[in-house]
C-alpha cells in the first residue's frame, strides 16, 4: 500500500508509516469501533481525526488533577464496548485479550492534559494514529 501511494507519512500527524505498530492499529480500530458502532464503512480507516479522538476522550475518560485517564473496567459502557470489540474482531479466542486491550488503551492514552493541547501538540501523543486533517 505504501508503494501504491495509499499510505504516506504525510497523512499522519503523530506517526511515520514505519513506526505504526500493532498497538497503534488496535487502539485506532477500537476508538473507531466505539465512535461508529453501526457503520462498518467508517471503521475501515487506519487513522482518526483529532476531533474524533477528542470525542472518545470526552466519553470514556475522567479528569483528575488536570490529567485525563481512561475510565476503569467497572464502567459498564466501556466494559461492554471492549467485549463487543473483542468478539467482533475475533480476539475472543485469545485468552485475556480484553484485559490486554484495556491495558494498552490505558497505558497509551491516559495521563495527558488533553484540553490544553493544541493541534500541533497532538504530534507528541502516542497511541492512536492521528490524521493531519
* Total DSSP helices: 4
Report strand %.
5-15%
Rg on CA atoms, Å: 15 Å
Number of domains: 1
How are strands sequenced across the largest beta sheet?
1-2
Quick synopsis:
Helix content is 38%, strand content 6%. It has 133 residues and is mainly alpha-helical. The mean pLDDT is 91.
SSE layout and pairings?
Blueprint: H1 22-35, H2 50-60, E1 61-64, E2 67-70, H3 76-88, H4 97-109
Antiparallel strand pairs: 1-2
Helix pairs in contact: 1-2
How is this structure best described in words?
- The protein is mainly alpha-helical and 133 residues long.
- It is built from 4 helices and 2 strands, in the order H-H-E-E-H-H.
- A two-stranded antiparallel ribbon has the order 1-2.
- A hairpin with a 2-residue loop joins strand 1 and strand 2.
- The mean pLDDT is 91.
Supply the key terms.
single chain, 133 residues, mainly alpha
Amino acid at each position: 500500500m505504501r508503494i501504491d501511494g495509499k499510505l504516506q507519512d504525510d497523512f499522519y500527524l503523530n506517526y511515520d508509516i514505519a513506526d505504526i505498530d500493532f498497538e497503534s492499529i488496535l487502539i485506532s480500530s477500537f476508538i473507531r469501533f466505539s465512535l461508529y458502532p453501526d457503520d462498518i464503512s467508517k471503521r475501515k480507516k487506519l487513522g482518526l481525526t483529532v476531533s474524533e479522538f477528542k470525542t472518545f476522550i470526552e466519553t470514556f475518560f475522567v479528569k483528575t488533577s488536570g490529567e485525563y485517564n481512561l475510565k476503569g473496567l467497572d464502567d459498564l459502557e466501556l466494559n461492554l464496548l471492549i467485549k463487543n470489540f473483542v468478539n467482533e474482531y475475533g480476539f475472543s479466542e485469545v485468552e485475556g485479550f480484553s484485559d490486554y486491550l484495556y491495558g494498552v488503551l490505558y497505558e497509551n492514552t491516559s495521563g495527558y492534559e488533553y484540553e490544553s493541547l493544541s493541534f500541533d501538540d497532538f504530534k507528541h501523543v502516542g497511541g492512536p494514529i492521528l490524521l493531519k486533517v
